[in-house]
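Fill-in record for Phosphoribosyl-ATP diphosphatase.
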Amino acid sequence: MTDPLRHRLDVLAELADTVTARKGASPEISYTAKLLSQGIEKCAKKVGEEAIEAALAAVKGDRDHLKLEAADLFYHLVVLLEVSGLPLADVMGELEKRVGTSGIAEKASRKQV
Ligand SMILES: N=c1c2ncn([C@@H]3O[C@H](COP(=O)(O)OP(=O)(O)OP(=O)(O)O)[C@@H](O)[C@H]3O)c2ncn1[C@@H]1O[C@H](COP(=O)(O)O)[C@@H](O)[C@H]1O
């Protein structure tokens, strides 16, 4: 992994801290507080919308738009994790556990059960 990417991954951790800190803030001044106050279904809907918008931008080959939509998707996913009470660290831990395991091998092992 390149150093600039490692540095920028810190931004995701910072974002998660900010989202947690927005709990209980005024929905008048914080979009995050507004989303959190609207509950899990609203947050989940936003993730679905942003995921589709990112996918469409990718299919169109519009990388500038994909960058914006992917950032929206990360943000809304972090909000969804927060409202679900699931720490981002747990998701990163799950990804870490998968490092070194081929997705094809993992899928094949599932079929044997
Ligand atoms: N990264 C983001 C971020 N990405 C996208 N958005 C907002 O997400 C919304 C998505 O756009 P839409 O057009 O889908 O929104 P909309 O139609 O108004 O939304 P709904 O009516 O469907 O709720 C916009 O209002 C964006 O500004 C974000 N809002 C906040 N953050 C981060 O969260 C921090 C805290 O923000 P506040 O909670 O607003 O203080 C910010 O400093 C940023 O770091």
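KEY FINDING: The radius of gyration is 17 Å.
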